[in-house]
Design brief:
heterodimer, A: alpha+beta, two-stranded antiparallel sheet, 36% strand, B: mainly alpha, 2 strands, 1% strand, globular
Chain lengths: 112, 414
């Protein structure tokens, strides 16, 4: 069981979402975030003063997946969100120690 | 001072005061359009649409003051085709019934209204610069020419005795609203839909970001419309005028109310829930419909007219989506389609033929559509009218204006 955090471009959310649904992923958590990475910051001028907007809007997708599905999910996200330019985002993977479904008290893989 | 001179002086003061008051109400409609459009676009395009609204208003005022007003009203032949071209605002003539400046002021806020209609339809994807260039042509020439043909006593609007057609459009269902919608439609055709709007799976909903602004904008427009239609009586120096203006207020208000209720019922029955954005479109379509003749129907008839216009506009919104004409705020349906309905309803309450009304619609519509299309086309060839795909994804606020509407924090080393 893995906890997968993907940071992607906002306009790619739909493509990633559609692809994950196709691959049989039944749930995910999505949030609007801002962050700093290799994508160059834009310099803006506000009331005549320059400022650099280092934190660029991104979408964070969090998914819990079984070991069997992990590679496929990673590939799906990469394929559906890649543009090849800086700012495409990252995927981080960590192990889940335990998972519960609140409604039924199911545990671990049954809870996903 | 003789009694007659005293009466004339009082009339002059009353007329001027009435038009100043009405003009200020209509000016405020610019705020209504701004809020409505800001609420109906996605949040990443809020600052940009507000910028467009403020600058289009400003450009419309200057362009109309410099060229438009003269084209529309000054020194042109009665029942003619070709307006005279000149500059500025004339001095008030001897024996005039109101100040020349107030004539101008009341007209300039109408021009701004026509232009405001365009910004909503092309929202979220048009370049700011291209839009502003178009705004100058629209308000300096395109609108004033058809304005001359109608209200300026050109061949459409001059009475039959004066050699005109006697086309009847009291406060501008076609002259202002349909004209704005036609300019918008020609722009949208060259511009294309927002990215991702029409895909293989049908129409993708792109919900507006801020419903409180939508509601506020609607009420501001509703209020401003009382001046738009009421002020179009143009004079207030008899009990007849006073009665007419009061009737116009009642009818205008009733048509908007009927339109809102009608759209609520249609949206509930057909789509299952009360869709605020469609209810808002219904109220505005009711207002546009009654604008062609707010003075002659009984209040009961005004309710019916508002309901008819709003129902047709309601289905027009769905129709334009079906043929993939992307109009984020429904401006083409609400102002164009309901405007045509309003003009065609006039013969039921006034002595004018359906044919005359139809000719008016065709002439105004084809002039504004054709000349706008030409301007958009040239601007597109010279500078481009659409922001890049990447800019569209990032949002026009950041790429056109350099600031988001709601920046919680910005990074940057200081």
């Amino acid at each position: 069981m893995y906890w997968l955090t993907a940071i992607v471009r906002p306009f790619k959310l739909n493509d990633v979402y559609n692809r994950l649904i196709e691959e049989g992923i039944g749930g995910m958590t999505v949030s609007e975030v801002k962050g700093l990475g290799s994508q160059r910051a834009t310099t803006e001028v506000y009331r005549g003063n320059e400022y650099s907007n280092d934190f660029i809007p991104k979408i964070k997708i969090e998914i819990a997946v079984s070991e069997d599905a992990l590679d496929n999910v990673i590939d799906s996200i990469i394929e559906s969100s890649k543009t090849g330019k800086p700012g495409d985002g990252k995927i981080f993977i960590s192990k889940i120690q335990q998972a519960y479904r609140i409604r039924t008290n199911e545990i671990d893989l049954d809870a996903l | 001072m003789s009694t007659e001179a005293l009466v004339n002086e009082h009339n002059y003061i009353f007329n001027t005061l009435f038009l100043l008051f009405s003009g200020a109400l209509v000016m405020w409609m610019a705020a209504g359009f701004s809020m409505l459009e800001a609420g109906l676009v996605r949040s990443k395009n809020t600052t940009e649409i507000l910028t467009k609204n403020i600058l289009l208003y400003a450009l419309a005022c200057i362009a109309y003051q410099a060229f438009g007003f003269d084209i529309m009203y000054q020194d042109s032949e009665t029942a003619g085709w070709l307006p005279s071209f000149g500059f500025g605002i004339e001095a008030t003539a001897e024996g005039a019934t109101q100040s020349r400046d107030v004539d101008f002021f009341f007209q300039v806020v109408f021009v701004a209204t026509a232009m405001s209609i365009v910004s909503g339809a092309v929202a979220e994807r048009m370049k700011l610069s291209a839009f502003l260039i178009f705004a100058i042509f629209m308000t300096a020439v395109i609108y004033p020419v058809e304005g001359y043909w109608t209200w300026g006593a050109g061949f459409l609007g001059a009475s039959v005795e004066d050699g005109g057609l006697g086309f009847s459009d009291f406060a501008g269902s076609a002259i202002v609203h349909m004209a704005g919608a036609m300019a918008a439609l020609s722009g949208v055709l060259l511009l294309g839909p927002r990215k991702g709007r029409y895909g293989s799976k049908g129409v993708k909903a792109m919900p507006g970001a801020n419903m409180p602004l939508v509601a506020l904008g609607t009420f501001i427009l509703w209020m401003g419309w009382l001046g738009f239609n009421g002020g179009s009586q143009l004079t207030l120096n008899s009990t007849g005028d006073a009665d007419a203006i009061a009737r116009i207020f009642v009818n205008t208000n009733a048509a908007a109310a009927a339109g809102a209720i009608c759209a609520y019922l249609l949206s509930t029955v057909l789509y299952g829930k009360a869709d605020l954005t469609l209810i808002v479109n219904g109220a505005l379509a009711g207002l546009v419909t009654i604008t062609a003749a707010p003075d002659s129907p009984t209040p009961t008839l005004a309710v019916l007219f508002g309901a008819i216009g709003a129902s047709i506009a309601f289905f027009a919104i769905k129709f334009f989506d079906k043929i993939e004409i992307d109009d984020p705020v429904g401006a083409i349906s609400v102002h164009g389609v309901a405007g045509i309905v309003g003009v065609m309803l006039v013969p039921f309450t006034k002595d004018v033929s359906f044919l005359t009304q139809l000719i008016g619609i065709v002439v105004i519509g084809s002039w504004v559509f054709g000349s706008s299309l030409a301007v958009w086309f040239v601007v597109k060839k010279l500078f481009g009218i659409r922001i890049s795909e990447q800019d569209e994804y990032d949002g026009a606020d950041a790429t056109e204006c350099g600031v988001e509407a709601y920046p919680e924090f910005v990074g940057g080393k200081n």
